[in-house]
Specification:
The protein has 492 residues and is an alpha+beta fold. Helices cover 63% and strands 7% of the residues. It has a five-stranded mixed β-sheet with strand order 2-3-1-4-5, sandwiched between helices. Strand 4 (434-441), helix 17 and strand 5 (470-472) form a beta-alpha-beta unit. Bound molecules: 3'-deoxy-guanosine-5'-triphosphate and magnesium ion (2 copies).
């Protein structure tokens, strides 16, 4: 669970004391509130966006609910500079605080951890929460204004409407921006920075041209606002949340600025619809950018997880679960490949078959788990005796196979003798010894498919001759196509 959700600030924020955090929140909120003064509304101008609402929500999500006094203080201070009355200012502060607390509660409840919009639904839910919670701030402000008789020429409904859209837009645009930038982002490769510039410059130029009325009057500016969307989609599909939220915020800031100045496509629409058009534009930009970005992220995470699962599955399919050595299926594939290569390049391939002597007794006396332990220890011993392209496999039960490409008869025999000695001397193997049979292609047999049987035959002879020894395959009366019988090995 995120630290901030439990009421404690996360990451960088924890380096500030509580008083420091309150001050930080209050300063940020107050500065934003004064930058886009709500006084504008009282003077009859359209209040377009309230970044302070987004800052308040982000602060509560990042630092915990306990920083609410910072929001209240800053909102009240901003109010007192406008309203004059301390009581009214306190009420304005309470409205702004309640709005942020309710929004933070809903975001934590519905969206989950506050700093990631990892699913498309998160973004849509976030926008809905912004719309819902903004009603609280709007109602408080409208009530205070109506109470003090300051609503001027504007009606109560119009005041509420403008305040609501300003808060909703502030939350939708500013909160995701702060939330994304508050966490550490991945390092950017240089070509990504270049691509960002190639994207941001034309995007801002287009937004500026459309909203500042600098296009020829013959061009219909309202439909032209759709020109911004391909840029937003580009950012969403190619960049991280940070870049997407930043570009969204820049687009919305340019649009809001010019709209507040009385320019752009939204001002020439039906009277009273300007704030709604601007909010609809901002919501479209934010939802398109963040939803697509979330979906693209989900897709790439799913592909990564699938690739990882496939890798694990492939690995599991060729490994013995107890010893983690290769299994018999892999042995057959590998041996077939190595023998083909050996045939083509006139090289040798040695096979060592290893079987523990009287292993059943370990199970019978010490238990199956102790037997398993011996098998695992033997596997790690065998790993010490493989090098280069050699492989060690668990053939089945307490039988193991080593494949040594490019070996000679002498080197294979030497390796087998060394292993036999090491097993004999190894502590932790409960005194068990091993018998080994060795066959070398093409010396022992020129038929690749008979090589394993040749090594097995040699192993059988090692068992027959008293165990705890190495036997090299030698052509004899028994044909290599005869499977090694089991009975002589069980005889002591
Ligand atoms: P020898 O090879 O010397 O003839 O005698 P052995 O006692 O080793 O006889 P054999 O190879 O026929 O029996 C192998 C025994 O290995 C039988 C079985 O109980 C045991 N075994 C096989 N797989 C496992 C395993 O995964 N874990 C344990 N603990 N025992 C196993
Ligand atoms: Mg055995
Ligand atoms: Mg056996």
């Amino acid at each position: 669970m995120d630290a901030a959700v439990r009421g404690r600030p996360a990451g960088w924020a924890s380096s500030f004391s509580y008083a420091g955090q309150l001050l930080l929140v209050a300063i940020a909120y107050f500065a934003a509130a004064r930058l886009v003064p709500s006084a504008g509304m009282l003077a009859g101008q359209a209040l377009v966006v309230s970044p302070a609402a987004g800052i308040a929500l982000a602060a509560l999500l990042l630092l915990g609910y306990r920083v609410w006094p910072g929001v209240w203080l800053a909102a009240a201070l901003a109010g007192v500079t406008v309203q004059g009355s301390l009581f009214d200012a306190a009420l304005l502060g309470a409205g702004a605080t309640l709005e942020a607390v309710v929004a933070a509660l809903l975001v934590r409840r519905c969206v989950g951890l506050p700093r990631s919009f990892e699913r498309g639904e998160d973004v849509v839910e976030f926008v809905a929460i912004a719309a819902l919670s903004s009603a609280i701030g709007a109602t408080t402000v409208t009530a205070v204004i109506a109470w003090s008789g300051l609503s001027g020429s504007q009606g109560v409904a119009s005041t509420w409407w403008m305040q609501w859209q300003a808060d909703a837009m502030g939350i939708v645009v500013v909160a995701p921006l702060i939330l994304c930038w508050s966490r550490r982002g991945p390092a950017k490769p240089q070509q990504k920075t270049l691509e960002m510039l190639c994207l941001a410059l034309p995007t801002l130029a287009a937004t500026q041209a459309i909203f500042s009325d600098s296009l020829p009057a013959t061009l219909p500016s309202l439909p032209l606002t759709f020109v911004i969307l391909p840029f937003v989609i580009w950012a969403a599909l190619r960049f991280e949340q940070r870049e997407v939220t930043t570009l969204n915020a820049l687009i919305c800031a340019v649009a809001a600025w010019h709209t507040a100045e009385g320019h752009g496509p939204f001002t020439s629409a039906l009277p009273g619809t300007t704030p709604l058009l601007l909010l609809a534009f901002a919501a479209t930009v934010v939802i398109t950018g963040l939803v697509l970005n979330a979906v693209a992220g989900e897709r790439s995470r799913a592909i990564d997880a699938l690739a990882q699962a496939l890798k694990t599955l492939k690995e599991e399919a060729i490994r013995d679960p107890l010893t983690n050595l290769y299994n018999r299926r892999f042995l057959h594939d590998y041996l077939a490949r190595e023998l083909m290569r050996a045939e083509r390049d006139h090289l040798r391939v040695a096979v060592l078959m290893i079987d523990l002597d009287h292993f059943k007794r370990v199970n019978d006396t010490a238990g199956h788990a102790a037997g398993d332990e011996v098998l695992v220890k033997l596997a790690s011993l065998l790993k010490r005796y493989i090098r280069g392209s050699d492989i060690a496999c668990r053939f089945g039960g307490e039988e193991f196979t080593l494949v040594l490409p490019n070996a000679t008869v002498q080197s294979a025999q030497a390796r087998a003798e060394a292993i036999c000695k090491a097993v004999r001397e190894e502590r932790g193997l409960r005194g068990v010894t091993a018998s080994l049979g060795v066959a070398v292609f093409p010396d022992s047999t020129a038929e690749p498919e008979a090589l394993l049987r040749a090594a097995d035959r040699a192993l059988y002879e090692a068992k027959e001759r008293g165990r705890n020894r190495v036997k090299m395959f030698a052509r004899g009366p028994a044909t290599i196509s005869t499977l090694r019988p089991k009975s002589p090995r069980r005889a002591a």
